[in-house]
Amino acid sequence: IGAPQYPSTAWRVAVLTTMVGIVLGVSVLRLVERLRASSEHSETILGAMGEGFVLTRNSEIIAVNPALCEMLGMSEADLVGSRPPYPFWPPEDLDEIEEIRRRVVDAGGSEFELTLMRSDGARFPASVTAASAQLGDGSTAFVNTVRDITGRRAHEDSMRRRADELLRRRLVGRHRRDLRGGAAAQRPHRR
Q1: Neighbouring-strand partners of residue 60
Q2: Residue 147 and residue 116: Cα distance in Å, rounded?
Q3: Can you tell me the distance from the alpha carbon of 111 to that of 127, in angstroms, rounded to the nearest whole number?
Q4: pTM to 2 decimal places
Q5: What's the CA gap between 142 and 112, in Å, rounded?
Q6: What is the residue-level pLDDT of the chain in tens, covering all 191 positions?
Q7: Which of 33, 51, 57, 160 has its CA 20 to 30 Å from the CA of residue 106?
Q8: Strands across the sheet containing 123-134
């Protein structure tokens, strides 16, 4: 019979390379599918949020959600990639807002209120919660939630006006009693 004949070294390397490629390819495809599912899950959560969401890295907006776009009347393309001063900062408040932004970055996050601007120029009060997060590449990002507090401010103003009205009525009533009491004290008593 003779010595066994094995495939040539080149053929063995080709088969081994093909097998490794197939295993790596399947692994990469599974990883991509898991990342896609994770990304879709994250997008679903961000899309369902009623609050605006902004992710910034090195002061650049890198992601927003539909609620923020709707709140501002701006598209994702209008916002992503922008840097301070952001397109929703009212020009008359730029210095004040930049100072707030610097303090928040220095503190690593904060909650604050400020006035923002819609695409049509309308101003509205907003509450922002900013928290820092370390990204996998070693950079720091800020996760920001933005709430339009126009309704809350209107309710607070209404409650303040109501409290002022009640206080005014109470003071007027007290003043009238004092006037009546004072007039009665000046009248002689009859017996």
Answers
A1: 57
A2: 11
A3: 7
A4: 0.63
A5: 14
A6: 666 676 677 777 777 777 776 776 666 666 666 666 665 655 655 555 678 999 999 999 999 999 999 999 999 999 999 999 999 999 999 999 999 999 999 999 989 999 999 999 999 999 999 998 887 788 888 999 999 999 877 777 888 888 888 888 787 777 677 777 654 444 555 55
A7: 51
A8: 60-64, 52-57, 140-148, 123-134, 109-117
